[in-house]
């Protein structure tokens, strides 16, 4: 058979095989066109799961009369005009083949009116003929598209459709995803004349919280932490569910890149890695996350359905997502702690007893609460952040500001809890520090958040005495840190290095390997393949060059002490991560580099200041 050019009708049907997989695919293409047209209200009517009728109506900018025929032509679009536009795509659609493909396997009617026109016009096309009929019509500003008898001329495709209930389930899930991507748009979804969803525009934080609760369940909204984090022009925000509240079944996993729905493998891997060991194998993560990035740094033209993207700096994106989410998850109190805090608050309200800091057999139970508050305030130690019993709250780390997080009341309406100052958390700390308080059991002490000063010193109680532990010195013992496992990186990190750095790395190759790093040097390039687990969530690409420079400047050999000092003092590593990673080793007082906290002398000093 000789080579020949395919007819437009056949080419459109082949394209429809990629674009139109099922009724939900049609809805996706039509609704995305509405969003690109600036619509703020979209109505979707479905009959018989979409096989009989799909109607999408919007109040967008509309299509001019002379462009209606072009709109149903293949490779015709208003969203891009030249090759450079593909490098920075901001619209949801851009290929210009959806309407032509849909009309080739259905009976399609497009009615539209622009604001400049006094009347609307209607274009119709059906099946392989591709002839477009134009006639006047009545319609407000905006566009309506009806797709009737989907796959009427391709019986094989129609035979593979599932039941009406199943097909509509896919459409409903699609609308949920789209509604979570555009809070400023109102949505109405009906099936066989019955209204299934009606969502008003969500313009305020409270309204956005309500939409998340309506689409992802109140349980998700109640136990999800709100996150916002940014770094070098990349922004991540949204909600991530508490690990203890995650379920075995997949119920809420929505991720977006620049407002586009995604099922990207890199993002999913980063999210799962952020949960780490906090999530058991029988549970799956739950999240609603939005990644915002320069359109020039992401390629969306790599998947027929645009479900996947290719990041130009995939390693940076992956590590940023892992770091941001891991920081947020570390700040979520465990469910057991929420229960204990609730019990502590109730006990404190029902009793006039004020727990003291017990350093001798008599204790300080009879001292005034004001003196205890002064002691805590003057000590310089950061008290842990309180958590609402209704909803754990988290914020991103780094330079970004945290988004307001709401707790959901029994009525389902979000209520914002004011952040309490450190002194207002005294009751929780008293229960943690007191050995005489009835509520302060060993379990409470084990799960309370650590009190850390200067990102290095841990204030901890042991046998009725409070100690200040130097974490860096305590953990400088190689036998302690070498017990940590090594974590392989998804993508190796690459660094350009100088001759001096090569010499230092070569001289310390054995020590570097003992620290848990797996790296090779090739052509003035350092390739890091694995790092110690406790360093996995740090920004390796930023602190490693500084670490190498310190080795050169100070003529020192690689060791845990130098590494931990650099990371902690430069705030590359949160001291709480050290406690979390090496809690078992730090539970041995004989290994502590610590001094006791002299409360009596501190109180005496405070008394003198008052005089």
From TrEMBL:
InterPro entries: DNA_mismatch_repair_CS, DNA_mismatch_repair_MutL, DNA_mismatch_S5_2-like, HATPase_C_sf, MutL/Mlh/PMS, MutL/Mlh/Pms-like, MutL_C, MutL_C_regsub. Keywords: DNA damage, DNA repair. The keyword Methyltransferase does not apply. Pfam families: DNA_mis_repair (PF01119), HATPase_c_3 (PF13589), MutL_C (PF08676). GO terms for biological process: mismatch repair. GO terms for molecular function: ATP binding; ATP hydrolysis activity; ATP-dependent DNA damage sensor activity; mismatched DNA binding. GO terms for cellular component: mismatch repair complex. It comes from the Bacteria. Residues 382-413 are annotated as: Disordered. The keyword DNA repair applies. SMART domains: DNA_mis_repair. Residues 384-412 have a biased composition (Low complexity). Residues 212-330 form the DNA mismatch repair protein S5 domain. PANTHER family: DNA MISMATCH REPAIR PROTEIN MLH, PMS, MUTL, DNA MISMATCH REPAIR PROTEIN MLH1. Belongs to the DNA mismatch repair MutL/HexB family. This protein is involved in the repair of mismatches in DNA. It is required for dam-dependent methyl-directed DNA mismatch repair. May act as a 'molecular matchmaker', a protein that promotes the formation of a stable complex between two or more DNA-binding proteins in an ATP-dependent manner without itself being part of a final effector complex. This is DNA mismatch repair protein MutL. It comes from Rheinheimera salexigens.
């Amino acid at each position: 058979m000789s080579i020949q050019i395919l007819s437009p009708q056949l080419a459109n049907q082949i394209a429809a095989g990629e674009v139109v997989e099922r009724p939900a695919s049609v809805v996706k293409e039509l609704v995305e066109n509405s969003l690109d047209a600036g619509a703020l209200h979209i109505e979707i009517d479905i009959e018989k799961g979409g096989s009989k009728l799909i109607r999408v109506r919007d109040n967008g900018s509309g299509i001019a009369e002379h462009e209606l025929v072009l709109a149903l032509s293949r490779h015709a679009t208003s969203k891009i005009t030249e090759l450079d536009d593909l490098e920075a795509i901001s619209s949801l659609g851009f290929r210009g083949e959806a309407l032509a493909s849909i009309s080739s396997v259905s009976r399609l009617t497009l009615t539209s009116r622009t604001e400049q026109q006094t009347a609307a016009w209607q274009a119709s096309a059906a099946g392989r003929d591709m002839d477009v009929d134009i006639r006047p019509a009545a319609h407000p500003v905006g566009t309506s598209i009806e797709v009737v008898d989907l796959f009427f001329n391709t019986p094989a495709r129609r035979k593979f459709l599932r039941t009406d209930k199943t097909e509509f389930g896919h459409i409903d899930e699609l609308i949920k995803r789209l509604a979570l991507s555009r809070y400023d748009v109102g949505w109405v979804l009906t099936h066989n004349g019955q209204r299934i969803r009606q969502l008003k525009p969500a313009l305020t934080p409270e309204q956005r919280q309500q939409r998340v609760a309506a689409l992802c369940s109140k349980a998700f909204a109640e136990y999800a932490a709100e996150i916002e984090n940014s770094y070098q022009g990349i922004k991540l925000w949204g909600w991530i569910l508490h690990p203890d509240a995650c379920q075995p079944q997949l119920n809420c996993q929505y991720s977006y890149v620049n407002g586009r729905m995604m099922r990207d493998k890199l993002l999913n891997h980063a999210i799962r890695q952020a949960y780490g060991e906090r999530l058991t194998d029988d549970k799956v993560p739950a999240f609603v996350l939005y990644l915002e990035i320069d359109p020039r740094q992401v390629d969306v033209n790599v998947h027929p359905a645009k479900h996947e993207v290719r990041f130009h700096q995939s390693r940076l994106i992956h590590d940023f997502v892992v770091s941001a989410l891991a920081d947020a998850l570390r700040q979520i109190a465990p469910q057991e702690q929420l229960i204990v805090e609730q019990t502590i608050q109730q006990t404190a309200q029902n009793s006039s007893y004020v727990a003291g800091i017990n350093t001798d057999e008599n204790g300080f139970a009879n001292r005034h609460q004001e003196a205890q508050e002064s002691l805590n305030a003057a000590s310089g130690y950061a008290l842990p952040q309180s958590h609402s019993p209704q909803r754990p709250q988290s914020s991103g780390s780094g330079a970004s500001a945290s988004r307001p997080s709401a707790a959901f009341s029994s009525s389902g309406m979000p209520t914002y809890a004011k952040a309490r100052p450190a002194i207002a958390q005294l009751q929780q700390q008293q229960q943690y520090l007191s050995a005489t308080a009835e509520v302060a059991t060993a379990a409470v002490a084990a799960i309370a958040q650590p009190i850390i000063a200067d990102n290095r010193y841990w204030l901890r109680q042991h046998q009725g005495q409070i100690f200040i532990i130097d974490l860096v010195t305590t953990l400088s013992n190689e036998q302690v840190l070498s017990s940590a496992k090594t974590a392989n990186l998804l993508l190796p990190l690459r660094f350009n290095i100088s001759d001096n750095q090569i010499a230092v790395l070569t001289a310390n190759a054995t020590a570097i390997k003992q620290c848990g790093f797996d790296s090779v040097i090739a052509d003035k390039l350092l390739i890091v393949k694995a790092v110690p687990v406790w360093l996995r969530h740090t920004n390796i690409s930023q602190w490693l060059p500084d670490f190498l420079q310190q080795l050169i400047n100070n003529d020192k050999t690689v060791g845990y002490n130098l590494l931990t000092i650099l990371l902690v003092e430069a705030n590359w590593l949160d001291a709480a991560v050290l406690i979390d990673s090496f809690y078992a080793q730090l539970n041995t007082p004989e290994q502590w580099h610590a001094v006791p906290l002299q409360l009596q002398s501190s109180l005496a000093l405070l008394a003198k200041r008052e005089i």
